[in-house]
Amino acid sequence: MKVEGLQEDGGSGSVSSVDQSATGAGGSMCSPGSAERCMSRLLSAVESELQAGREKGDPTERELRVTLEDAELWKKFQHITNEMIVTKNGRRMFPVLKVSVSGLDPSSMYSFLLDFVPADSCRWKFVNGEWVAAGRAESRSEGRGHGGIYIHPDSPNFGAHWMKAAVSFNKVKLTNKVNGGGQIMLNSLHKYEPQLHIVCVGSRHRLVSNVSFKETQFIAVTAYQNEEITALKIKYNPFAKAFLDAKESSLPLTSHHHHGYKHHGYPGRHTPYPTAYLPHRSHSSGNSVFVNVCRKSKNKVL
Predict the structure, then answer these.
(1) Among 83, 89, 158, 209, which residue has the fewest nearby CB atoms (within 10 Å)?
(2) For residue 298, is it within any domain?
(3) Which residues does the UniProt record annotate as the domain T-box (predicted)?
(4) Which tens digits make up the pLDDT trace of 249-258?
(5) Which residues in the chain land under pLDDT 70?
(6) Domains in the chain: how many in total?
(7) What is the H or E stretch that residue 257 is in?
(8) What is the dihedral angle through the alpha carbons of 171, 172, 178, 182, rounded to the nearest 10 degrees?
């Protein structure tokens, strides 16, 4: 099922200054240097468009539609408050953000950019099985501000390219450290909402659309807090399934039941999940504990 995104005007959802210190290869942030000047100029144009609130679009894109793929899956996570892991080296998102686009000019050039904005002004904590507000969120001026804008690696490209198949942001990595590795830096225990920016590239860079979906909101964490989120991640994420299958095949099996599902556990444990999948009750945005789930996996998606 697809859900049509609400296109917002250029003035909504302001974006702070873009971090241009990271590498620009593979769809990551821009870096200084002659090879990156054009992309840096593009980011500056996006920033000024968003802050100035200029009128978006022209008759060419009046019929533009952006729809969220896997909307029903996103809603399952939204219903119990989604969580996304952030690590020092960066962790990929699950569910993966994917959109389908129609109404672009097939012969015009566009760039697709992804930005993560605070969904509210609160810091959150998980208490007695639920998320509750726990004070004021860290502001962008407190040293751990906005993490930059992610440029899709296919950018820039023709409108025909973007419309021929779903646009996937499966390479986005979320981190909680300023490490210059091209990841998006987020504050742990803060809620975020991804925003998609479509920019027409040419002699005059023009912001075509600014789109977001409420069902993609999530709280950044260093370890999953809600066991129901853990169960959903394992159930629907093929990478997590493969990891569990490999672990189970190498260990003696004992039968356990959890949340109505029958699982195979591990000797000496009272839970069907490896330790790294379990929620951690002690949490802080600056110095949090995270157990690496896939130590042997180069690209982690959990």
Answers:
(1) 89
(2) no
(3) 68-245
(4) 555 544 444 4
(5) 1-59, 140-147, 179-182, 203, 241-302
(6) 2
(7) strand 254-258
(8) 50
